[in-house]
Amino acid sequence: MTARLREIAGRLGDVPAYVYDLAALDAHAARIRAAMSGIEVYYAVKANPDPAILRTLEPHVDGFEVSSGGEFDHVSALFPGKRLAFGGPGKTASDLTRRPYRFHVESPRELGLLEPADVLLRINLRVEAQGAALAMSGPFGMDPAMVAECRARPGRARIRGIHAHLASGLDAATLTGLAKTIADHALPGEEVCVGGGMAVDYSDPANLFDWEAYGAGLRGLDREVVRIEPGRAMTAYCGWYLTKVLDVKRVHRELFAILTGGTHHLRTPVTKGHDQPFTVFGSGGPEEEVTLVGQLCTPKDVFARRVRAALTPGDVVAFAMAGAYAYNISHHDFLMHPKPEFHYVSGMP
Q1: Which of 150, 193, 238, 297 is catalytic?
Q2: pTM for this one?
């Protein structure tokens, strides 16, 4: 892939580009599928809804998890008849008229508004998840008392089981422990969906989530149907964001490199508060401590802060791990800069 990146970098103009390595994604998804033998895998479309990404994943997943009417329509058009699970805390009346394979119900009121449908009750549990990057507490789902209310008054819905997504950024052992806690709230014979939350380490991209250990742990739940909904951990590694260095300058003794693009294309680092890993295609030279920023008129437009790099105007910086929660969650139209280009690599030439 380095050769292809270098080739694309060599013809990069003033418009940044996303590069998706579909061959690597296909291999990664196949490994996950093998590790999850006996477990249903639904890809969380919110992580990256790019059609080429979804087409690459489709043979390896049992279905897709969508969180809006727009995502539902988008995926349904690409894969008619594919199983969809419809989640999200704020479903509209129009959303509730759709017919997914499973609705993830967020409240007793939502349950009562549904036409006849197969549903999972989303449960919100107060648990401590050591090392979590994000805890999904607050308004999401229902506490156990609300779940009991739904069971007592199911209305026209057919309750098929329990759904939960309690935290993100966790290792396999911690997620397995959470899965056991979630499964304890399901009735005998019910489906158990334990969501996503698999750790992705931006500081050490080689530190991959242990899918094999997680699969073994989930099979140990001894449930007929166990389902996961990975997003970031499936697609983050397949994406690169390529930018060009416009200027390098020192302001109050701090060195800055100003790049084309910015967090309106790649919001991940500022959202998660990390330095985005990168590779430089350039002329070389001495490394210095430098902060990499974009073109936006805000001090929050930062890709990486005080990192070691050798950068000169005209060099291309390729930010790795840009395949999830990147362009699709970014504020595209701020300052009305050009949209990035997109390149898809299905294998080496």
Answers
A1: 297
A2: 0.94
